[in-house]
Every structure is written in structure tokens, then in C-alpha cells.
Amino acid sequence: MQSPPPLISRCRAALHEAMNNMKKDN
After folding, report:
1. Angle, vertex CA 17, rays to CA 16 and CA 23, nearest 5
2. What is the pTM of this model?
């Protein structure tokens, strides 16, 4: 299984950051 392209990994990283930020706000 090959590693995902940088674009996808970047999107996933941004998604995780957004979720963490939402958790901190609440």
C-alpha cells in the first residue's frame, strides 16, 4: 500500500487540527 499524495495528507492534517480546535473551544 503506497503512501497518499501530499495533498491528501495535508487535508487530513488540517482536518485533525480543525477537530482539535473545536474540542478546545467547547
Report:
1. 90
2. 0.55
